[in-house]
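REVIEWER CHECKLIST
Item 1: Sequence provided? yes
Item 2: Single chain? yes
Item 3: Sequence as submitted:
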Amino acid sequence: MQRIITTIQVRMGSQRFPGKHMCEVAGKPLLMHLLDRVRQSKLLTGLVVATPDTPPNDTVEEFCQSYGVPCFRGSEDDVTDRMIKALENQNADIGAEVYGDCILTDPAILDLCIGEFLKGGYDFVGNGLKETFPSGTYVEVFSMQAFRKAAAGCNDLSIREHGTYCLRLNPGGRYRIRNIEAQGSLRRSDLHLDLDYPEDFEVVKAILEHFAPRSDMSTEEIITFLDAHPEIARINQNVHRRWRQCQQDIQRASTL
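Item 4: Structure as written out by the authors:
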């Protein structure tokens, strides 16, 4: 069987919201909330937290050790290199990426992307190359062979700081890319569940506290909660999202 491993990129030195992963909500750190959700995937073989090898991130490694989760230390700035080495450390055949800023990652959406990848025919499957899902639910699944090849052909640190960006950009149409679009009630790109700024923290905190002690709430349930409390959803509606530029670059470079 192929080993399907997801990396979760976490660092304490975020410029927009330093130390956010260790902020406690409903009695546990946000990183624990994320790990508890990712562990509910039915298709993953395992996971690894990847964090920079700089002293401020010792806290992340110490937490992972106490929680029984593998932790890999790598480059601060070259996230592509950190990802590849973390996945190789876990003997991954297929890689997946759950963004550390996506505390409310839905294991069902992760499994949807893994399942599509396993059907064959693609080097990369994700749901975030276009805005159709709520942000904060984006995940990626990719061939390790394709990721290594794309990384080997890219020396631009402004690209490598974004993990699989070198693969997602798909230079020259070399890679088979599949983007899954949200259907039905999940098609809510107006909602933001990612954690980039203090305003996002207020939204994520309200959601986690509402559902506590559960960690298995679906994205549909979260959407229902926010629709019932529009004042919460409005808190982070006007926050600037830097990842949108990456999406626009990818769309210009592809036929998605």
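Item 5: Key structural point noted by reviewer: The mean pLDDT is 93.
Item 6: Recommendation: ____
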